[in-house]
Design brief:
heterodimer, A: mainly alpha, 6 helices, 65% helix
Amino acid sequence: MSLLGTSLPGFPEAAPLAGLAGGVLIGLAAALMLLGAGRIAGVSGIAARAFSIGSGSMPRPAAWAFVIGLPLGALAVMNLSGAATPDFAGPVPLVIAGLIVGIGTRLGSGCTSGHGVCGMSRLSQRSLVATATFMATGFATVAAMNALGLEVLG
Amino acid sequence: MMRDLLVSLVSGTIFGAGLALGGMTDPARVRGFLDIFGNWDPTLAFVMGGAVIVMALAWAMQRRMLRPVFGEGFALPDRSDITLRLVGGSALFGIGWGIAGLCPGPGFAAIAIAPPSAAIFVAAMLAGMLLVRLREGKA
């Protein structure tokens, strides 16, 4: 893991190689879903399918298998790396953020994975617009919260 | 059926490993990336870049395939219309992403890292999804 700890000049907190390696894994996972099963690895859509909120052609057991895999993979990495448990927001901001993310991803037909990874790499016009939009409001939200002095991470 | 399950489970597991390795399951890192006017942490640009490059290669392969390796056919989005719903929904999603530093994939993946926090986020997210569905009828 020492190589993965390589830093970036000027950005002491950045972990570019760990980020790149994580991104390649995410890309491989999405490629397996596309070339193996013929589907988009969009987490919000698959989650909606698993919980019978969204329609679609993906069999519900397969949607569940994907959703269950997410924490399994994360658990393996956390155990291998021995990284400390990160800080999460408290219950109130988590509920507010969760509700907004749920509403937004259904209306916007996707999230960081479906639009940001699968759609952008295909040069989908809708995904390019969606990704530019959620990045912009994400930047604005953090900037506004910092300006107001709102700390959410314990 | 079994192959569909296995492909999904393996894909989800690799996906979750990538999210954790890349720092997407660490809200401070995500919010650091979104803090572009402050103390910016560019790590997530590398995550996004790595994933997009691999997927661009996968799309190039997909265009030469008649059907997926383990499936009957491709089930892919084919819309290209830019709607208010797409832009407004994405704008909302970005706000929620910025507030807690979590998006859907890391929300589920974090169930293995911080179970109570991740469960609260995921439950609220599913409630939000259900609200859209209830409001729109059985769309």
